[in-house]
Structure formats: structure tokens, C-alpha cells
Design goal:
The longest helix is centred in the middle third of the chain and has 27 residues, at about 175-200. By secondary structure, the protein is of the alpha/beta class. Strands 1, 2, 3, 4, 5, 16, 17 and 18 form an eight-stranded mixed β-sheet that branches. The chain has a six-stranded mixed β-sheet with strand order 8-11-12-13-14-15. Strands 6-7-9-10 form a four-stranded mixed β-sheet. Helices cover about 30% and strands about 25% of the residues. The protein has two domains: about 1-60 and about 350-388, Roll (Urease, subunit C, domain 1), CATH 2.30.40; about 60-350, Metal-dependent hydrolases (TIM Barrel).
């Protein structure tokens, strides 16, 4: 599909991100969705492709990944995931570290994944700003959907493990919570002093770390907190509520144990990586039941790979395993399309095949929730970027 003239994909089983059509078509023009559904009116001069019963979905979205930061096969010293010399580093910007030539990007396209949020790692209590990008490799500014997309934070084992050996806070979960609160208090003080100086037309020094946290306090970007254990999840919610910030829970491994509480708190969660072994104590209760139990409780969630923990091209497999554990198939597809877009607050642009949205499309040779199925065509902004 080119961007200059209309194009039609017809004769497909189409999941729009909202509902499933057994015999439907999609009209694309100018890189945007014009129509998706039954009884299509083919625009004059449109290029028509008969998909012969293949299955079409929105391009999949992984709301939590580290691709472009830790390219597989590269030496460990070239890993840009964590700058683990200071446990509070909100001034770091992941956009400055993304490597567009990472093989993970074409592998994402081969797996029908067209959009990802790339976040710093979880070695630090506050690790820096994330970015949302399309997966078609290009100059990073051309891939960009939003930057900064969020402030990454972490509770639990990772920061404690990283800094206990350096004789620095945190040595305990209490230490991590203190550092998080202390950073927000310092940012509040900085913001107040900065605004007072501006009102008085007085000079004031800038502090990039505090400026970054003020964005969170002002509700401009969410606070995305890495949490596995139920107590860490509750601490993250407690601190977010204390400071009145937008937040999400990333991983939410024990979310099924407190699903009703999460629902009452209106928590949004990114669940995964579940296709792994239980490599540390805080993963001891990891289960594929988590998405189903969150759905049953009414918790908004999406499914993630945490690439490279689980390779990005297996996002559809993760969704299929959630179905095997009892999650309804359409909910599993939503968890890697429209729910993921809502988690990232980009649902006005992608995540479903609705008029005006980006023409990010995956075409499958079977049911995308069957692990034997493959993406055979992938489009980003209406451009064919992968063909099997």
C-alpha cells in the first residue's frame, strides 16, 4: 500500500481492535485507516489486494521493551539499559540511547509488532524517561511517536541488589521507597522555588533531574513503576497517591493475588514477561493466570515481552498462552493492541483499525493466537515494511 492513492485489503477475517468481522475489508489512504468492516465501498482507482481469507489485526503494540538499548550479540559494556551509578536518575533520556539498527526492530515487524515503548531498565529506583517508537527502522526522530512517554521507576529486588554492594541506598525496600519519596519532595521544592523566581523575574538555576520529575508531578507524563511482588505493587500505589501522580504498574507479577484491590484503585498494569523461568524470588508466584484474573476483576491491563527477556517477535505467543490459561481470545488480542495503546495513551493514533488512525496493520496466515501462525505482511503508516 502506498501513501498517495487509496488501497484496499479485502476478503479477510478482520479484528479491528474492538470487534471481529469474518468477511471484511480495510481501506487505507495517506497512511491512515479510512474504513474497516463489511460492505466496503472501493474508492475509484484504489489498489485492491485480495487476502483470500487471511486474518488481519492492528499492528501489535508492546508497551514495555528495551529494544535498541541492549542489542543481542553485542558486548555487555555496550548495554545502555541502565546507568547504574546513582539510584535516582530521572534526567536520563532513553531517546539518546536507542540504536535503530538493532535486529530487534526487523524481528518485531516479522512478529506483527509495529509500535513499542522503550524504557530504561530497573537497576535504579528512578531510571529515566522512556520513548514510544514505531518499529520500522529509520532515523530515530522519524520512528518517534512520543518522547518522553513516561518516567521509569523500580521497586523490589533489582535496585537493592544493584546498590547494596556499592554501600549506597537502597539496601532494603524501605530504602527504595524513601529515595522515591525524597526525589518527589525535592522536585516539589524545586518547582515551587523555580515558579517563585519566575514570578519575581529573578534568575534561577536549572536542574535537569528536577525538571524531569516536575513533569511527573504536573501530570505531563506517567510514573511507570517496575513491581513484581504484591507488597511492592502496593507501595508504588501508595507513593503515587501521596504525590497525586499518574502511574502504571509494570510487570504486576503478583497482581492476581490482589486483583480486586487493583480494580478498586483503578490501576493500569502491563503484565509480563511471563514466558520465562522464575529466575528470582519475587517471581515465585508468576503464572499465566494473571491476565485472566485481572480481566475478571475489571483491571485494565496489557501484555508485554520486556524484550529481550522474551524476544519481541513472540508477543503474539504470549497472548496465546494467556488464552490457554482462560483469558477470552478477543481480550487477549485487545491486550496487545487497543489495551496496550490505552496503557500508553496513544489510542487516538493506533491500537485499532478505526478511521483516522495510523494504518499499522498485521496480516496473518492463520489465527494470530495460534502459535503456529505467522505474520505474512506488516504495514506501518500504510507502508509495507515486511513480507514473508
Amino acid at each position: 500500500m502506498g501513501e498517495k492513492k487509496a488501497a484496499v485489503l479485502k476478503g479477510a477475517r478482520v479484528f479491528t481492535g474492538r470487534k471481529m468481522f469474518e468477511h471484511a475489508s480495510i481501506v487505507v489512504e495517506g497512511g491512515k485507516i479510512v474504513y474497516a468492516g463489511e460492505d466496503v465501498s472501493v474508492p475509484e482507482g484504489a489498489a485492491v489486494t485480495d487476502l483470500g481469507g487471511l486474518t488481519v489485526t492492528p499492528g501489535l503494540i508492546d508497551a514495555h521493551a528495551h529494544m535498541g538499548l541492549c542489542s543481542e550479540g553485542f558486548p555487555a559494556e555496550m548495554d545502555d539499559t541502565n546507568d547504574d551509578v546513582d539510584p535516582v536518575a530521572p534526567q536520563l533520556r532513553v531517546l539518546d540511547a536507542i540504536y535503530p539498527d538493532d535486529q530487534a526492530f526487523p524481528e518485531a515487524l516479522a512478529g506483527g509488532v509495529t509500535c513499542v515503548q522503550i524504557l530504561p531498565g530497573s537497576a535504579n529506583v528512578i531510571g529515566g524517561q522512556g520513548a514510544i517508537v514505531k518499529t520500522k527502522p529509520d532515523v530515530i526522530e522519524k520512528m518517534l511517536v512520543r518522547s518522553p512517554s513516561a518516567m521509569k521507576a523500580a521497586l523490589g529486588e533489582n535496585p537493592v541488589r544493584d546498590y547494596a554492594s556499592k554501600n549506597k541506598l537502597p539496601h532494603t525496600r524501605m530504602g527504595s521507597a524513601f529515595l522515591m519519596r525524597d526525589a518527589f519532595v525535592r522536585a516539589q521544592n524545586y518547582g515551587s522555588k523555580h515558579m517563585a523566581a519566575i514570578r519575581k523575574d529573578e534568575p534561577t538555576e536549572r536542574d535537569l533531574s528536577m525538571e524531569a520529575l516536575v513533569m511527573v508531578l504536573d501530570g505531563l507524563i506517567p510514573f511507570r513503576v517496575h513491581c513484581h511482588r504484591a507488597d511492592d505493587i502496593q507501595t508504588a500505589v501508595r507513593i503515587a497517591e501521596e504525590f497525586g501522580v499518574l502511574y502504571t504498574i509494570e510487570h504486576c507479577t503478583e497482581g492476581h493475588l490482589i486483583a480486586n484491590w487493583l480494580a478498586a484503585k483503578k490501576v493500569r498494569a502491563a503484565v509480563g514477561p511471563s514466558l520465562t523461568s522464575k529466575v528470582k524470588i519475587e517471581l515465585r508466584n508468576k503464572t499465566w493466570d494473571t491476565p485472566r484474573k485481572l480481566w475478571e476483576a475489571g483491571v485494565h491491563f496489557c501484555i508485554i515481552t520486556d524484550h529481550p527477556v522474551v524476544p519481541i517477535e513472540h508477543l503474539s505467543v504470549c497472548a496465546s498462552l494467556a488464552v490457554r490459561a482462560g483469558l477470552p481470545p478477543e481480550e487477549a488480542l485487545k491486550a496487545v493492541t487497543i489495551y496496550a495503546a490505552e496503557h500508553l495513551d496513544i489510542q487516538d493514533r493506533t491500537g485499532s483499525l478505526e478511521p483516522g488512525k495510523d494504518a499499522d496493520i498485521a496480516v496473518w496466515d492463520g489465527d494470530p493466537l495460534d502459535s503456529r501462525s505467522k505474520a505474512v505482511l506488516t504495514f506501518v503508516d500504510g507502508e509495507l515494511v515486511f513480507e514473508r
